[in-house]
Each structure stands twice: as C-alpha cells, then as structure tokens.
Amino acid sequence: MKSLSLWVVWGCFCFAHLTLTNSEEHNAPEDLLVLTVATTETDGFKRFLRSAKHFNYTVKVLGRGEKWQGGDYMTPGGGQRIRLLKEALEEMKEQEKTVLFIDSYDVVFASGPKELLKKFQQAGHRVVFSSETLIWPDRHLEDKHPHVREGNRFLGAGGFIGYLPNVKEMVADWAGEDHDSDQLFFTKIYINSEKRKSINITLDSKCRLFQNLNGALDEVVLKFEDSRVRARNVMYDTLPVVVHGNGPTKLQVNYLGNYIPMVWTFESGCTVCHQDQRPLAGIQESAFPLVMIGIFIQQPTPFVTVFFERLLTLQYPKNRLQLFIYNQESHHTKQVDSFLTSHGGLYHSMKVVGPAGDDTDSVSSRNLGLDMCRQDKECEYFFSLDVEVVLKNKDTLKILIEQNLPIVAPMITRAGRLWSNFWGALSAEGFYARSEDYVDIVQGRRVGVWNVPYISNVYLVKADVLRSELTEYGVFSSDTQDADMAFCSSVRSQGVFMYVTNMHSFGRIMSVENYQTQHLHNDLWQIFENPVDFEERYIHENYSLIMQDKIETPCPDVYWFPLFTDVACDHFVEEMEHYGKWSGGGGADKRIQGGYENVPTIDIHMNQVGYAGEWHKMLLDYVAPLTEKIFPGYYTKGGGCRFIRYNCSVEAPRKGWALMHPGRLTHYHEGLRTTGGVRYIAISFLDP
Ligand SMILES: *[C@@H]1O[C@H](CO)[C@@H](O)[C@H](O)[C@H]1NC(C)=O
Ligand SMILES: *[C@@H]1O[C@H](CO)[C@@H](O)[C@H](O)[C@H]1NC(C)=O
Ligand SMILES: *[C@@H]1O[C@H](CO)[C@@H](O)[C@H](O)[C@H]1NC(C)=O
Ligand SMILES: *[C@@H]1O[C@H](CO)[C@@H](O)[C@H](O)[C@H]1NC(C)=O
C-alpha cells in the first residue's frame, strides 16, 4: 500500500450497464480472482469492497487482522504484501485462474471483470502491471527501464493482473522482509530483460486497465454521463478499469483532485446505492440520538445574538442536545449568558469555557469539547459549530445524522463567493488545491455527498469514530498547523473519511473581518462586510415587496414604505442614546441626521457616530432603487409630518416605515405635535 486512503469515492454506479460482450470463453469472469491485502478495515477498504461487489468481482482479502509491517507513506515498504500473496498463491491449484492483485485502501473499480479481462487479453502478455509517470523509490534505475512507444515508462506495484502460473513464478524468489519495498522488488524483475521475457511481463502504459493517480491528476477527468460515472485519461483517451489514488509519500497526503460522491444526483434525481452506507430512513421521534453541540466563539463576531436565536429554532428535541460553548471573547459574554439564562434549562446539559480566569485556548477547547463527547458513553454525535456559521436550514442536524457517515459537513458558502467550508483536493504540501469539480459542487451543478480531504466550521462526527479511530486527545493540536488543518490531517491519517453534502441548502458563513466592537450595536455597521446578514436583521421583511407592489401614497407624491425592522429602529435609537450628544433647538423629537428648521428637534448626525458611510450605503442599496422607480430624477427625505401645501397629514407613522417625497419647493411641511413619548426620526436628503 502506498497510501492509506483515497479521495475518490467510486461509490455509485447505480445504473451501470456494461455493453461489452465477452468473446473469450476460456477467460470467463468467474476465473478472475481479485487478491488484496488489508490488515484493517478502513473506510477506504469498505469503499473498495462496495465497488467490487457492485461489479461482481470475486475478492479474497489477505492479512486480515495481521499487524501491518509493510511501512507507510513515509518509507517504502509493502514486502508483507508479497509474502501474503505468495502464501495465498501456493494454495491455489487451478492453472486457468487469472489473478488481479491490487491495493484496496485507495482503489476503486470503475468497471466490471469482463472489460478488465478483455483489455488484459488485448495487451498480449501473461502479466500486465500498472504504470507510473514518476519513478520511485530508486531514481537511478531510470535508464534500465525499457522505452515505451507511448505512455508511462515506469512500473507501479500497486496493481497487476496475470495468469496464475506466471504470477507464481514472479513471486517465487521472494525472500525479503515485510518492510522491504514491493515496488523495488517488482521493478527489478521488470528491468531484468530475461525475467521480463520469460515471465512475459508488460506495462499498461496508456492506462487502459489501471490508472495510478500519482503525478497524473491532470490527465484524468470524470465523465458524468447516462447516470454513470467514469474516469477518463484524456492524455491517452482511455477509460481505466481500476483507479488507484496513490499519492506522494511525504506528509501522509492523499491527494486527489477527482472524487466521486457516495450518493449523487444526476439530472434524473438522487440515487442512493449502497446498503451499508444507506442513509437512515429518518430518525424515530422517540429515539433521537444524544448530540453534543460544540459552539466555538473564537473572535469578535457579528450577529451573535442572531446565532443564538437561530440555535433555538434548530429542529431537534432540546433535551437530546448537550451544549458545549467555548467563548474566547469577553465582548460576547453578555450574549452567551443571556442565552443560557433564558434557555439553557431546556437543554440536556451545558458547559461554558472561557474567557476569563481560564487558560483554555481555541485549540485546547476543541480538544476538550470533542473529548467530553468521547468520554460520555451516552453521547452519540459531536456537532461542531463555529459561531460565524449561519445555519439557515433548521433540519441540518437531522439531515446530517440521517447520512449515517463517520464525519459529514453541510456545505456552506460565503455569500456571493466561491469560498466554502470544504476543499476538493490537497496540494502536495497538504494545503488547499482546487479540484476539477470544486466549482460545480459549490455552485450546485453537481449535487451529492462528496468524500473530501478537508472540512471546517460546521460538521458532525460520530462518537463511535472518536472511540475507535480518533482516540487521541489532541486531534486539533499541531506544532505547524492550525486547528482545522490538524484535525483533518488526523482524520485522514486514521483512514477515516470526511464528507460534505450539498444535497440541501444549509446556509452560509459570515465574514469576521473588520468587525468593530466600540459601539453599542456593532451589527449595525455590518452593511459592507456581511450585507446579507445585515439585510435579514435590519431591513423590513416586506421591503422587497414594494418593488413589485404599488407603493402607498398617503398624500400626493408622498410615498410610504416599510424600510427597517423593529430591531433596526430600536438599535438605531439605542445607539444614538448611547452616544448621547444631542444638539439643536430642543423639542419633542429627536432626529438622527438632520438640518432644517421647521421641525423643532434635537439632532445627532450620522457622521458623529461614525455611521455616515454605512448610512450612505443603506440609502444607495435600499432607497435609491425606489427613488429611481417613483421619481425618475427627483429625491428627498422621510419622517412623520404634514405637507402644508396639500393640507394633508400622515398622522400615524409606522415604526420602521419611510416617507419619501420631493423636497421643500413643492412639499413644504411641518412636524406634527408629538402627543406622548419621544419621537425619533431618521432623515436624509437625497441628492440626485
Ligand atoms: C452482478 O450480478 C448480479 C447477479 O448475478 C446481476 O444481477 C448484476 O447485474 C451484476 N452486476 C453487474 C454490474 O454486472
Ligand atoms: C507473451 O504471451 C503472449 C500471450 O500468451 C504470447 O502471445 C507472446 O508470444 C508471449 N511473448 C513472449 C516474449 O513470450
Ligand atoms: C408583511 O406583510 C404581510 C402581508 O401583508 C403581513 O402579514 C406581515 O405582518 C407584514 N410584516 C410585517 C413585519 O409588518
Ligand atoms: C384642511 O383639511 C381639513 C380636513 O381634511 C379641513 O377641515 C381644513 O379646513 C382644511 N384646511 C385648509 C386650509 O384647507
């Protein structure tokens, strides 16, 4: 095995129809035996078996339960594979057998035995090895390799097919150690021209049978067609039958730009294929698993109050939810406390960590939260949720649980950007690499559940996985990597698969950049950084209707429309009172911005509270489009007032509604007497 897992999921060939006919009676599919070595049943191994089963391959697994001695990515190894193969072959007597020997942790079948055998026969040799673009482990052997007319020149030990007697002959001389390199052993046989001829070995240089992906990502694309997926090697125009996601040896990276979902929809709709991975039919109301929600507040973040309001509306029984809240910011303590005081009692349990008197940092809090679930026998899932995530889909938790996967994230994106909370591929150094289909997935042109090498911000982990594979306490800790990357690399190195689903729309993530904390209601300043969140919080829910509907006109040429939510009005007023430096002639009204004489008011200008730019943007985004609609070329202000020339009054102003009318020339007006309380008016003069 050259790598432990592969980010190609070849999960689903639901409607695969093979049209090839087998003209070789003496080489029937039932004579093909697939041999593979797997000492542990990783997710990658299960995936391999699923694809083998789907195409009706007969598979014999060698080394089950044995301790793996054959090295890992870091060092050449794999001698154990040859020893196990040799032992297994010695027991086999039927000379007619054809043997396919391949890795399994990072391999999937793309087609069935008939096609494989046909291509094997067409190769005209007794043993056919997979080929590699890169030579390893010993580059000095390059010159000894025979030249090939077209295609890859080097041998790949990760997969070969051959007739039993020839394969037996090939491994007969094996006397190496388990940690010796199988790659080197087979390479030496191949570059020995006598042995090559006598055993009758060739390479599958153009990837007709085997596709090794190491160094060849650019050659391979996925074809989604007729409800079926295949990899195509575009360099040689071939459709390989076996796809092997071997990767670079450094950093334990499984790199693979191309992956195939467990479940995917393809025009005709969603298909779920594999019994052992079939999503749960739906959680029984009586048996909701106990889930620990880990909420992480790691920086000053906008709309934290909204986050908690949304958390309350998550569709899941609260007595089946445990809360673990890490708050690094004293700025947010009030919001956390207020949520817990009002609603904490509804939940199964709660624990808050940070910020004061506590040296837990953001990495150790993640380790701690995960471990609380790991140690609690009742805890069945850990749902990690960063506070900047905006989960719009109230059923998210149920949907994820129903996927029945070890680790699964709902795909979220940043409004209007290609940013998302998963990576399609890794670079050789373990950083982000864009996969061929990343954009299609982010934009929803390909929909499914995708096996990916990195997820972040929001994901669900099965507690079983914490107790069997991710048993180490410090999965988020690393000397060189951030917590998110350290976690994903821990997961990958344990051979556990991570998935992301874009089968529903789940929500988005906010930007935490440029978040000011010096105001009372800092969220008001978010119109630039998080315009979608600003709109949802502050712009009246019926604002968008006015572009279609007729706008109310209480007086001639006076337009009346909903603009702000109640919350926006309260926040503006509280913000101004908080600032407190009212100035002007006095009177019953307080005006935000201002500057004209008929209305007795005291004023605060937007620029006094540092809101001029935001206010201007608000006018441009929400008021300007209307002025263009109703007065092509003319603009003005709003309030609660009487238009003297028309002897017409708007007497019961509605909170958050705006009045818009032409200015003083035609609509000279006065404020009506305030009969009780304080009236707050926000005023703007719009200049065309
Ligand atoms: C596998 O075998 C089953 C039963 O013999 C058959 O129904 C199915 O079509 C086969 N699958 C393929 C991909 O050939
Ligand atoms: C290799 O095997 C093929 C098929 O069995 C045979 O036709 C060919 O002559 C053999 N080549 C050599 C060099 O033995
Ligand atoms: C928005 O309009 C609908 C339909 O007229 C109304 O029922 C609802 O109360 C309005 N929302 C608000 C916040 O006024
Ligand atoms: C203004 O209108 C009111 C009633 O709508 C009426 O009683 C009043 O006489 C009018 N005033 C003028 C100056 O027209």
UniProtKB/TrEMBL annotation:
<dbReference type="InterPro" id="IPR050757">
    <property type="entry name" value="Collagen_mod_GT25"/>
</dbReference>
<protein>
    <recommendedName>
        <fullName>PLOD1-3-like GT domain-containing protein</fullName>
    </recommendedName>
</protein>
<feature type="signal peptide">
    <location>
        <begin position="1"/>
        <end position="23"/>
    </location>
</feature>
<dbReference type="InterPro" id="IPR029044">
    <property type="entry name" value="Nucleotide-diphossugar_trans"/>
</dbReference>
<dbReference type="GO" id="GO:0005783">
    <property type="term" value="C:endoplasmic reticulum"/>
</dbReference>
<dbReference type="InterPro" id="IPR057589">
    <property type="entry name" value="GT_PLOD"/>
</dbReference>
<dbReference type="Pfam" id="PF25342">
    <property type="entry name" value="GT_PLOD"/>
</dbReference>
<dbReference type="GO" id="GO:0008475">
    <property type="term" value="F:procollagen-lysine 5-dioxygenase activity"/>
</dbReference>
<feature type="domain" description="PLOD1-3-like GT">
    <location>
        <begin position="30"/>
        <end position="270"/>
    </location>
</feature>
<keyword id="KW-0732">Signal</keyword>
